[in-house]
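Collaborator request, handled under Task 6.
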Amino acid sequence: DVSRTKLLQAVEEYDTTLRDAPEWKNWESKDTYKYAIVHVDKRSPVKQIIRMATGATDFSEGGRS
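Structure tokens returned to the collaborator:
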């Protein structure tokens, strides 16, 4: 379980540190990203936000970490 607060903090951190980083440019057009978190009309990659909120690194076995 991760709190809403932690997730929102991760979204904010993504916005300020990664959104404009070269490795995240055009992430939505890549086939590996099927889902997004939408907050304040901005889309963020779900797994990256979860990584940032929880420190999880393994998303095998159907998304369990």
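The cover message to the collaborator said: "The mean pLDDT is 90. DSSP finds three helices and two strands in the chain. Please let us know whether this matches your experimental observations."
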